[in-house]
Amino acid sequence: THVVTDACVLCKYTDCVDVCPVDCFHEGPNTLVINPNECIDCAVCVPECPTEAIFAEEDVPADQQEYIVLNAELSQRWPTITRSRDPLPDADKWKDVKNKIIHLIK
Ligand code: F3S
User: Which end of the chain has fewer surrounding CB within 10 Å, N or C?
Assistant: First the structure.
């Protein structure tokens, strides 16, 4: 599977959802996640993300491993998103900030 990581938090640009052939993105208040049971590992979403938030599971950085479980868990209860929408209002401000997991609203 692929995994949405820390860089998405507080940004949620949503460019990724338009290209997903299996609609495996799910939307929370301030980030997206991928359902690992739906993702087919095509990787087309990876270059679409302006924050480079999406990794193949085996390539998730060591300090972001907790996002693997977060994607699996939160995708079970957040609704599917299949069309891009406007980013969060302060997305450009948060784009390059690290360790945003403390702001992740579940
Ligand atoms: Fe998030 Fe990047 Fe998609 S910021 S919503 S993973 S385009």
Answer: C
Q: Choose which residue among 24, 49, 82 to substitute to test ligand 1 binding: the one with the highest number of ligand atoms within 8 A of its C-beta.
A: 49
Output DSSP code: residue 78.
S
Q: Quick one: how many helices (H) and strands (E) in the chain?
A: 3, 4
Pocket of ligand 1 (CB under 6 A): 4, 8, 11-16, 32, 48-49, 51, 53-54
Angstrom distance (rounded) from CA 60 to CA 89: 27
Which pTM does this prediction carry? Answer: 0.97
How far is Cα 80 from Cα 13, in angstroms, rounded to an integer? 15
Q: Report the complex ipTM.
A: 0.82
Strands (E), the chain: 2-4, 25-27, 32-34, 54-56
Nearest-atom index, ligand 1, CA of 17 = 3
